[in-house]
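User: Can you predict the 3D structure for this chain?
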Amino acid sequence: MKQPTCQQASRGFTVIELLIVVTITAALLVIAVPNFRDLVKRNQMTNTSNGLVTALQLARSEAVKRKKKIVVCASDTAADTPVCGSDWHQGWLVLDDKGERLRVWPSVSENIKIGAGDSEDEDVDKVVFSRRGQIDGDKTVTFEIRTEGLQNDCRSGDYPPNARDVDINLAGQVNTKPLKCAP
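Assistant: Here is the predicted structure, written as structure tokens:
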């Protein structure tokens, strides 16, 4: 019978090799986890912005199609029967002129803050589109969407990475853009 040599008998990792792998893995996680958290928050902001734009465009197109006023309003969509309210963070509704719900958007992540104001800096809790698809009234509307917990660094450029504006002009056109830092 042949005796195994030392080289054939040793298999597996040494403790030193295992410690090196664990150290490298820990270092990579320390770098990756914070960046991943920021990525998730930015994606939440983008999804919120896209959802709001979709609601506004749906309302505008339905107003033109039905030749009636259509409303997008803040609402507590977690309620059994959501109705218009004042907190955009709780979600929003698209309603026809008779109050029938066309679509409901759920509340947004607790990391997201939404504010809406008109061209005279008054708070806005609803946007009404006329039968022509224009804003019903004489003031433009701007939604400001911010992500809490991300660095709001205006020193690195004119646009912080954690904020977006959704603008609606008098013609009813909806535009989204990064929020510009104040001078």
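The helical segments are 6-9, 15-66. The radius of gyration is 26 Å.
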